[in-house]
Design a protein that fits this description.
It is a single chain. This protein has 20 helices and 26 strands. The protein is α/β, with parallel strands linked by helices. It has a six-stranded mixed β-sheet. Helix 4 links the parallel strand 2 and strand 3. It starts with a helix and ends with a strand. It binds alpha-D-glucopyranose (GLC). The site of alpha-D-glucopyranose has 11 residues, from loops.
């Protein structure tokens, strides 16, 4: 297909239409069919509101989508893209992306997105606005649930997993992925969605850009800008980021779409006097397709006539869009066919991911796993919830597929009953006195997470605390199951639990996952992808922080003078990478073949080869996430105390050992300086290997 010929046959009007995305629901179907008879629209978004994640959809059938596509193909031969927010599931719901990161299992995540892609294509969706790759350190921000967490390397691995899962790892794209929101959206001040961020070049490249770079390296077809302004420039019209960095440096060759009406929004923050100016700024900056506000559609012809936008610029944007469509094979095969897929397989992978995402935070005296013959009292409405546990951006998912937490327990232990604490009948409470153990399930609605849903305090609510008090009244062992989308602060109640599981908004199969974990059919292996603060006031608190000159850093408790605060500890409640198991893992010494390598050899690709033996000394065969952190001890810029550089999730049978090897080279030892240049410097590096970021087991390697 010679795309240049295609473009040369298009009128200017058609080209501008190709740069435009319209909304498409059942209500717009006939109108859009008519429109396509004369117009060369580029794409439709199957959504009817800006925060599609929180609004019920009126979906079209696959047949209707094909009908629309047929009109486009018959009238101008250019296939349409049908985009939709499929963030962590379409029919069967996977855990929210933040929980997927907690699995530290990119291979499993990749496989799940292959299944999600099957469900998408079966419903006429060939473009998903995922993965969301905004690194975030602020649990007040509702969209933290969609992100891969606070660490850039984990973000890189999740970006790769979703892009390869959605697009497939061969040259023909299955469904187009979209790396969003470029870039730094997660720095929104105060956790207030859409608010500004301030990011230095140094921080931008060493933290916020990395997951996007991974998506680009893995061939992501599209990128979406973030709503907010970074360093005083709205990302939707930031030419330095969209063109110089994303395309020039990172080599992105797909196309960029604006976020919902983000172009028009330039007229709200004093950047553009009108929609035409907004259109010109954004097209020139590198936004190829305009989502739903018609700024391009209504104004670019005038911009060309007035000489403010060149035809060349328009042709380049059209070429990028057509190139993606060609890579997807849409010109040859634009229509959707029935995709036969196994619902059972999709349920199974959702359960596996939920199981591997659950984090065991506490297990005093081996309270867990439970015996299935025990009498179990379950408290808390969240135990019966089918909706909230799916999380935000899951409204297409089939709620009838949800296995509730209570169902998951009851189906495994017949002596389970539910006690409703909200009904103050003390007499009834006595009925529970012969119970053996209490499971209290607390959580938050999906509706206070996701876009435009931030909270000022992450402390638990009075209702949460009432439930826990209720459970304590029974004077039995209390197991907490926390089903939230984001980290919440629960230091004040941590001592009330004998065991504590963080189940996130764990998706359709959360009940079965909890059931398997509670009764030992599976061993918890999740690790925190984000730091858990003791209280809201500690935010932002993150593991890859730098030390101060005073030696007061708090996170790692090397307090030389005094705590960071008088009203709380300096350290987090739970650190990044933390998660317990039912078994114990004994880490041996770290062996390094050659601990000194020259800078020249490192630049030529030589690596430090490390190995470590880990022994499972407990009673359960289990998976462990072996984490490798590096500290650059002496550098031309202040470097973090620890940085996750590699990890491997391994299954180790009980009483057995496993050797894990890590290769550390230029990619792990360098950093971007303030001029945005990647540099590697001589000096010592500490390599920590362990089960979370506080690992003290280290060796020193040196670049000479
Ligand atoms: C929303 C979100 C974005 C989503 C888009 C389309 O405002 O910011 O993540 O993909 O609009 O629904």
């Amino acid at each position: 297909m010679n795309l240049t010929d295609v473009i040369n046959k298009m009128s200017l009007r058609n080209k501008i239409e190709q740069l435009s995305q319209f909304r498409l629901t059942r209500d717009d179907f006939e109108e859009m069919k008519d429109k396509l008879k004369n117009e060369c629209i580029g794409s439709f978004i199957l959504a009817d509101s800006a925060t599609a994640g929180n609004a019920e959809l009126k979906p079209l059938t696959r047949e209707q989508i094909n009908e629309i596509q047929k009109v486009a193909m018959e009238n101008h031969g250019i296939p349409l893209l049908f985009g939709h927010d499929v963030i962590h599931g379409h029919k069967i719901c996977m855990p929210i992306p933040l929980a997927l990161s907690a699995s530290f299992n990119p291979e499993l995540v990749e496989n799940s997105y292959k299944y999600i892609a099957e469900e998408c294509r079966n419903d006429g969706i060939n473009w998903s606005f995922a993965p969301m790759l905004d690194l975030c350190r602020d649990p007040r921000w509702g969209r933290i649930i969609e992100c891969p967490g606070e660490d850039p390397y984990l973000g890189e691995k999740m970006a790769e997993a979703v892009v390869k899962g959605f697009q497939g790892d061969d040259d023909k794209i299955n469904i187009a992925a979209c790396a969003k929101h470029f870039v730094g959206y997660g720095t929104a001040e105060g956790g207030r969605d859409y608010h500004r961020g301030e990011i230095s070049e140094y921080t931008l490249r060493n933290y916020y850009l990395r997951a996007f770079d991974s998506a680009v390296k893995n061939g992501v077809a599209t990128v979406m800008n973030s709503f907010n302004e970074i360093n005083g420039i709205p990302n939707v019209c930031n030419k330095h980021l969209l063109t110089d960095v994303l395309r020039g440096e990172m080599g992105f060759d797909g196309f960029v779409i604006s976020d919902w009406a983000a172009i028009e929004q330039l007229t709200n923050n004093g950047i553009a006097e009108d929609k035409q100016k907004a259109a010109e700024l954004c097209l020139d900056a590198g936004i190829d397709m305009d989502m739903v506000d018609c700024c391009y559609y209504d104004n670019l012809e005038k911009s060309v006539e007035e000489g403010k936008i060149s035809i060349k610029t328009i042709d380049e944007a059209v070429m990028r869009i057509l190139s993606v469509k060609e890579k997807m094979g849409l010109f040859e095969n634009p229509y959707f066919e029935t995709v036969e897929y196994s619902k059972e397989k999709h349920r199974q992978i959702s359960k596996e991911l939920a199981t591997e995402s659950i984090v065991l935070l506490k297990n005093n005296n081996n309270t867990l796993p439970l015996d299935k013959n025990q009498k179990i009292c379950v408290m808390g409405q969240m135990a019966n919830d089918k909706r909230a546990v799916l999380g935000s951006w899951s409204l297409d998912c089939d709620i009838n597929e949800t296995v509730t937490i209570y169902d998951g327990i009851k189906s495994r232990a017949e002596n389970t009953f539910y006690f409703d604490c909200s009904i103050p009948k003390d007499r009834t409470l006595e009925d529970t006195y012969d119970t053996d153990v209490v499971i209290v399930v607390i959580g938050e609605s999906d509706k206070i997470t996701g876009e435009a849903n931030s909270i000022a305090s992450i402390e638990l609510s009075d209702e949460h605390k009432h439930l826990i008090k209720c459970a304590k009244k029974l004077n039995k062992k209390v197991i907490g199951i926390l089903s939230f989308g984001r980290p919440r602060a629960f230091e004040s109640v941590i001592d009330d639990f004998d065991a504590l599981l963080y189940a996130w908004h764990g998706g359709s199969q959360i009940g079965n996952a909890i059931g398997d974990i509670l009764f030992g059919d599976s061993c918890p292996s999740g690790k925190l992808p984000i730091t858990f603060p003791r209280m809201t006031g500690q935010i932002p608190i993150y593991y890859n922080c730098t030390a101060t000159g005073k030696g007061v850093d708090g996170y790692y408790n090397k307090i030389l003078s005094h705590p960071n605060y008088w009203d709380t500890e300096s350290s987090p409640l739970f650190p990044f990478g933390f998660g317990l198991s039912y078994t114990q893992f004994e880490y041996g010494q770290i062996n390094v073949q050659q601990s000194v390598i020259s800078l020249e050899e490192i630049k030529e690709g030589k690596t430090f080869d490390l190995s470590i033996n880990i022994k499972n000394t407990g009673d359960f065969s289990a998976k462990e996430v072996v984490q490798c952190y590096i500290k650059d001890c002496l550098a031309s810029m202040v470097r973090p105390q620890r940085e996750l550089k590699l990890f491997e999730k391994v299954m180790i049978q009980k009483d057995k050992s496993q050797t894990v090897t890590f290769r550390i080279g230029a990619e792990q030892l360098g950093f971007y300086n303030s001029q945005g240049k990647y540099i590697i410097e001589k000096g010592d590096f500490r390599v920590y290997i362990g089960s979370d970021c506080l690992a003290n087991n280290y060796v020193t390697i040196s670049i000479k």
